[in-house]
Amino acid sequence: MKLVLLSIICICCTCALAEDDAKLLQYKDVLDLFKYMHQRTSLKKHVDIANSFNIKENIDKYTHPEFVNEFLKLYDHGLLPMDEIYGLFYDAHLEEAAALFKVFYFAKEFDTFYKSACWARYNVNQGVFLYALSIALQNRADTFEMVLPPIYEVNPYYFFNNEVIQKAHRYKQMGQPGPEYHFQANYSGWYMNVHPEQALSYFTEDVGIAAYYYFYNLYRPCWMNIEELGVNTYKRGEQYYYFYQQLIARFYLERLSNHFGEIGSYDYEDAFETGYFPSMTYPNGVPFPQRPNWAKFFTNYYNHGQSFSTKGQYPYAYYSVMDYERRIRDAIDLGFVITEDGKQVGIYTPDGFNTLADILEANPQAINSQYYGHLLVFARHLIGYTFQPLTPYKTVPSALENFETSLRDPGFWQLYKRLIIHFQKYKTNLSPYKHEELHFPGVKVEGIVVDPLVTFFDNFDIDISNAVYVNDDEFQGNDFNIHVRQFRLNHKPFSYKINVTSTVDKVESVVRVFIGPKWDEYGRFIELDENRLNFVEIDRFRYMMASGNNLITRNSEDLLFNDDRVSFKQMYDKLQVAEKPHAFPKRFLLPKGRASGQTFYMYVIVNPYKPLVLEKGAVVPIVGLGVERHDDFALGFPFDRSIDKTVFYVDNGYFQNVMVNHEGDDTIYGLTRSYDQLAAADCVKSQSYEAEKAQMSKLKLSYEPSSSSSAEFDELYLKFRSSNLYMPQSVRF
Ligand SMILES: *[C@@H]1O[C@H](CO)[C@@H](O)[C@H](O)[C@H]1NC(C)=O
Ligand SMILES: *[C@@H]1O[C@H](CO)[C@@H](O)[C@H](O)[C@H]1NC(C)=O
């Protein structure tokens, strides 16, 4: 029971919680564990339990005492100290977090779980604790419906630039201007101009998208042995592929709206164009590592003056990445992978794609991880460009080495695009879908009628009170409040009607709806076979096809995409849990439009329902950005394989041009403006420009160095110069 159940349970958990006061109090207790996470707790109830509860004496209260003992062994040996930076991509850290997770997970009763958590909140490093606790909450049968507080409020350090955090500190020290004070938090690029791609930081730094990515990785941590823990999921590897494929596609749509083209690609042997300056600091004050533009990975930058092999687990990251990638790509072309004992396992089989995806994710189900390695983990380290730690406990993870901050680095998108290219190497070795696989005899999509699609930016307030340090008294209450305000993309609700005629009656079918680009950033048509991976699936549902006309109406509000998350304090006050399961933020359902309209394709395909054949106990999760897996078609169907254009255009599929218009001021402190909006602004300017130019040339004729009009001339000149216009040759001193 997990994700699919979750969607059902969450709908009724408001009432369930209201009826069940005990559960409500438990939830309140759980939320308290997240307060001022970067400090050791001084909440009295935590400290009391931490001092009185002893895990060893209660070992019979855990279903698997052996796992608990493993943790205690580590604890006695010494864990990552308080206030050090936790990095889950560092073995020593992850080992501790995974061990602590098992203590939480295997606690029989909620009471034991809670006491263990209070004990750990007081005694264990905050990062280790937060990670282990969050995953345990997501997976325990008695807590999985408890919605976690938004991570950007729990840990603002990982979501806001330093000047924002600094300002919060200033107000804490100097006194707040008002009880509900808020100020504007800007995205990167408004201060430090590092690369034009910073114009996309409203997307790559969006708190909702980053939180979605973080929670996705809590649901399905790549290291988690789902068999050992009994948390089964259906085709884990394939879901992994689809999640990233869709995320990358969605980013590409946003790039097009901002006049950027394809996500960049790179070679490890060559310099890496896009640098990254996070402008962020860890709660202990250490800055996030930076990567300059044109970084060279092959010079082993971080080994200069360091020993080559003994510091940390990544000294050979450059070679490891190249080796793993080579082996995986060989396997794809050979058609099999090699097990530890040298046997061949074919990958062009019904489950073969999943086998390959397990290897690329490097999860515990992956075959021969010694040989195929942890490609993405090493690549994150290499591209993240951090230092060799002096000891395992003095690590400074790069932005790419935390899930909260990964998306901020342009390197992330390039790296995962490369991952999709590996997967597609496999898919292009499969034959394109045949006519009978695409076709639904008797069913024809006549058209799609879509409401006007309108995007805009609006303000969103975020409570960052947890970013400040409080004393023991302040810790007991919730008295310090500081909010930041951010411009975030949004769109007006819309509906679309799919007009289907059918000669078949009472046939269960599945409808898929995609949004994809039509033109590239230069206005050139993108051939479908080159475009297919840019389609984002926004809707998928089952529908009983009736003979005759079927007018299917869908509303953007009903899609699985998530509403804004409720803030930490609202959760605490209202104790309501009524959110949908984790999906991409609804605000970003549509890519940003342009003032004069940006064309996209909407594509619909209707196919007969193909039931899922599930293994016993398997769970069907949300896949991609916000759709449920309903049937047994490959994820991404029909765009996942290369396209045979002679058979692709079936009657049961339909491409519709749609226009997304952007309304209002689309300026985020000068970072992102569409050309047509700029042109409109210039049009107004150029009228006054002509008038000023005329006056200028008149003055110029009468200009003499000592004349009284000289001051007037200077003033006009300065005004002219600062008016941001092109300076014509004829106006010179
Ligand atoms: C964000 O930018 C605005 C406009 O430039 C500025 O007034 C504000 O102080 C900035 N916010 C912070 C936290 O620096
Ligand atoms: C659906 O398409 C059919 C066939 O083109 C047409 O007759 C009908 O009017 C359409 N219905 C709507 C509501 O557009």
TrEMBL record:
<dbReference type="InterPro" id="IPR005203">
    <property type="entry name" value="Hemocyanin_C"/>
</dbReference>
<dbReference type="InterPro" id="IPR005204">
    <property type="entry name" value="Hemocyanin_N"/>
</dbReference>
<feature type="domain" description="Hemocyanin middle">
    <location>
        <begin position="150"/>
        <end position="421"/>
    </location>
</feature>
<dbReference type="InterPro" id="IPR008922">
    <property type="entry name" value="Di-copper_centre_dom_sf"/>
</dbReference>
<dbReference type="InterPro" id="IPR036697">
    <property type="entry name" value="Hemocyanin_N_sf"/>
</dbReference>
<dbReference type="Pfam" id="PF00372">
    <property type="entry name" value="Hemocyanin_M"/>
</dbReference>
<dbReference type="GO" id="GO:0045735">
    <property type="term" value="F:nutrient reservoir activity"/>
</dbReference>
<feature type="signal peptide">
    <location>
        <begin position="1"/>
        <end position="18"/>
    </location>
</feature>
<feature type="domain" description="Hemocyanin C-terminal">
    <location>
        <begin position="432"/>
        <end position="662"/>
    </location>
</feature>
<keyword id="KW-0758">Storage protein</keyword>
<dbReference type="InterPro" id="IPR014756">
    <property type="entry name" value="Ig_E-set"/>
</dbReference>
<feature type="domain" description="Hemocyanin N-terminal">
    <location>
        <begin position="27"/>
        <end position="143"/>
    </location>
</feature>
<dbReference type="Pfam" id="PF03723">
    <property type="entry name" value="Hemocyanin_C"/>
</dbReference>
<protein>
    <submittedName>
        <fullName>Uncharacterized protein</fullName>
    </submittedName>
</protein>
<dbReference type="InterPro" id="IPR037020">
    <property type="entry name" value="Hemocyanin_C_sf"/>
</dbReference>
<keyword id="KW-0732">Signal</keyword>
<dbReference type="InterPro" id="IPR000896">
    <property type="entry name" value="Hemocyanin/hexamerin_mid_dom"/>
</dbReference>
<dbReference type="InterPro" id="IPR013788">
    <property type="entry name" value="Hemocyanin/hexamerin"/>
</dbReference>
<dbReference type="Pfam" id="PF03722">
    <property type="entry name" value="Hemocyanin_N"/>
</dbReference>
<dbReference type="GO" id="GO:0005615">
    <property type="term" value="C:extracellular space"/>
</dbReference>
